[in-house]
Amino acid sequence: GENVEQHPSTLSVQEGDSAVIKCTYSDSASNYFPWYKQELGKRPQLIIDIRSNVGEKKDQRIAVTLNKTAKHFSLHITETQPEDSAVYFCSQVAGANSKLTFGKGITLSVRP
Amino acid sequence: DTAVSQTPKYLVTQMGNDKSIKCEQNLGHDTMYWYKQDSKKFLKIMFSYNNKELIINETVPNRFSPKSPDKAHLNLHINSLELGDSAVYFCASSQRAGYGEAFFGQGTRLTVV
Hints:
The complex is a heterodimer of chains A (112) and B (113). With 112 residues, chain A is an all-beta fold. Helix content of chain A is 0%, strand content 58%. Classes of the chains: A mainly beta (112), B mainly beta (113).
């Protein structure tokens, strides 16, 4: 019930193209879905989040969409740049103790 | 002014030894966490404390013992270290359990030889 599945595991795009990362979850009671970015050798950092009462949220070049019926949410990055290269984790808060659970991460490579 | 700080950053030790990792947050958050990140980058929750009380304990071997002397500190003690314990351990905190951004420490890279 608390698992979040993330796919694909790797993604390579040309600089300037868009990248889309999808995640699915199983706990219909989940109400908070943050996305974290982890650069090589660094700590994970929040880049955007969405709550279950919202379908879409945008912040400059990144956006997140949530489909509660289908239980999936996606991260969209437009006009990708080399500095977008990192591991991206989707996550959810679920369960009685509001556990923050992460997907397995996707390695995004932006080719110059 | 570091929000979540953990020490040491690197830890190399022999099998069978006992070691501790310390974590402190100056954000006034109620909830703190320990995550283990293995070589495949998977971030797995180990423990979560809310106001010094243990609220999440994820089937972690009892060689791992967290301690929270106050809500700003969460330490991790590991007994009888094994090769499989080698990983990066991240401490994190959030305003309250499952609410808002989780701020991560810099990580502690533990290598057991």
